[in-house]
């Protein structure tokens, strides 16, 4: 009896081994994907898309090379040195607009993806406004996964009610509200490290100048020296007087959390904050109910305008695993991939055919605005200026944040546009 059992087990093992050999897969393929999605609201979105990828390509090993730091400030520096050293990740996160065309395409670092767009039928489901921003001379260079809105003012509704402060619709009203909020020993506007100050700057410029004059700044010959720009920068300086004193040491999540906690009334930041506020606490998010734990409004002067950015993924020139990269890009552009990713990330699909019922109340409002508002691009998140110009603006901004000299700042902005402008 024991002997029979032994023989049967041995047979089973042999059969299993044979089967494993016969069906043996070639060595598992890999794909290395580079992003800056490591933090609250961001990592969970990437994980969700990864879930779809793993389901569709179980044999491709996913190497997540995300580098921490909001807006990619750190990640993009690491990426730049890897590209310079001829060691590209297979695919990396890049913003639609000048970041792609004026930076990676200009440096010949990424491959066109026209045949993928054709095979996948993406031209029928991606918005017409987006395609030119990722194209040059008829070649399409990235796969957009989302649309984020930059101009959102996040508020703490309980705190505003307690202080009797109405949501401001002009910067004058905003500055008035700050007096009341600060008299109650609260922070008026929560802000973080320098890129979040640039984010605030572009929103104030938009609010003060309006969409046409804002757009003109990024076109050839844009007049950065105008009295309107002076006035907008003066408003920006006044708004900066009402931010938390420890801003430079805080991440965007830290700053947003000040609003969630009721320590601050407002935070002007892109809608990745929605992912962070409403996401699962298990994933490092705050688990708040939209409209209850937090609320949102267009920052002063920007109602009716959607200042957008779009995260997309590229295919590296000489990608070590181009097949794996194409598999990843297929998922990134797919309905399933985008429906998994965006409700968690706090963005809406780049595709036009996602199921709106999967999205929360804030994101549903963003979908409506995206389709009806005037659309303009974000500076901080790669749409309006290439890296060289943006870096020049950032250097001038760094000085301005320490010396508050509007005239010197404006001259530096004029010079930056003159030398590096589009
Ligand atoms: C943006 C990016 C968003 C979000 C944000 C904060 O540049 O497009 O997806 O990650 O930075 O890190």
Describe this structure in words.
By secondary structure, the chain is α/β, with parallel strands linked by helices. It contains 16 helices and 15 strands. The strands form four sheets. A five-stranded mixed sheet has the order 2-1-3-13-6. A four-stranded mixed sheet has the order 14-7-12-15, with helices on both faces. Helix 2 packs antiparallel against helix 13. The longest helix is centred in the middle third of the chain and has 24 residues. The radius of gyration is 24 Å and the shape is globular. The site of beta-D-galactopyranose has 14 residues, from loops.
Task: Tell me the layout of helices and strands.
Blueprint: H1 2-22, E1 29-34, H2 43-56, E2 60-64, H3 73-84, E3 91-95, H4 98-105, H5 114-120, E4 135-136, E5 139-140, E6 143-144, E7 146-149, E8 153-155, H6 157-163, H7 171-183, E9 187-190, H8 194-217, H9 227-240, H10 252-261, E10 264-268, H11 272-278, E11 295-297, E12 305-309, E13 311-313, H12 322-333, H13 335-345, E14 348-349, H14 361-372, E15 374-377, H15 387-403, H16 406-420
Parallel strand pairs: 1-2, 1-3, 9-10, 12-15
Antiparallel strand pairs: 3-13, 4-5, 6-13, 7-12, 7-14, 8-10, 8-11
The structure holds beta-D-galactopyranose.
Beta-D-galactopyranose (GAL) binds next to loops.
């Amino acid at each position: 009896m024991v002997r029979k059992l032994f023989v049967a087990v041995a047979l089973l093992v042999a059969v299993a081994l044979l089967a494993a050999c016969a069906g043996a897969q070639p060595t598992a393929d890999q794909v290395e994907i580079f992003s800056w999605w490591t933090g609250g609201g961001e990592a969970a979105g990437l994980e969700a898309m990864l879930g779809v990828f793993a389901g569709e390509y179980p044999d491709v090993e996913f190497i997540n090379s995300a580098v921490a730091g909001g807006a990619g400030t750190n990640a993009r520096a690491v990426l730049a040195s890897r590209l310079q050293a001829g060691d590209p990740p297979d695919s990396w996160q890049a913003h639609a607009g000048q970041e792609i065309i004026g930076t990676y395409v200009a440096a010949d670092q990424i491959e066109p993806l026209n045949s993928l767009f054709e095979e996948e039928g993406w031209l029928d489901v991606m918005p017409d406004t987006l395609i030119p921003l990722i194209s040059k001379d008829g070649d399409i260079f990235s796969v957009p996964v989302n649309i984020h809105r930059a101009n959102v003012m996040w508020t703490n509704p309980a705190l505003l009610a307690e202080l009797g402060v109405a949501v401001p619709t002009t910067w004058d009203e905003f500055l008035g509200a700050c007096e009341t909020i600060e008299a109650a020993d609260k922070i008026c506007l929560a802000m973080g490290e320098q890129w979040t100050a640039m984010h605030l700057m572009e929103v104030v410029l938009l609010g003060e100048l309006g969409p046409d004059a804002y757009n003109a700044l990024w076109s050839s010959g844009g007049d950065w020296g105008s009295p309107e720009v002076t006035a907008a920068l003066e408003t920006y300086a006044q708004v900066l007087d009402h931010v938390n004193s420890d801003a430079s040491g805080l991440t965007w999540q830290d700053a947003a959390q000040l609003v969630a906690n009721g320590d601050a009334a407002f935070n002007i930041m892109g809608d990745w904050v929605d992912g962070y506020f409403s996401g699962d606490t298990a994933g490092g998010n705050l688990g708040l109910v939209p409209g209850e734990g937090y609320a949102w409004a267009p920052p002063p002067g920007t109602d009716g305008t959607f200042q957008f950015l779009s995260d997309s993924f590229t295919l590296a020139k000489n990608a070590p695993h181009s097949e794996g990269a194409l598999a990843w890009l297929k998922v990134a552009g797919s309905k399933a991939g985008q429906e998994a990713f965006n409700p968690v990330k706090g963005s809406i699909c780049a595709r036009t055919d996602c199921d709106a019922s999967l999205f929360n109340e804030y994101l549903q409002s963003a979908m409506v605005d995206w389709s009806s508002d005037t659309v303009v691009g974000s500076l901080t998140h790669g749409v309006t200026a290439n890296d060289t110009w943006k870096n020049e603006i950032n250097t001038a901004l760094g000085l301005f944040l320490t010396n508050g000299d509007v005239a010197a700042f404006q001259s530096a902005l004029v010079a930056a546009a003159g030398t590096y402008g589009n």
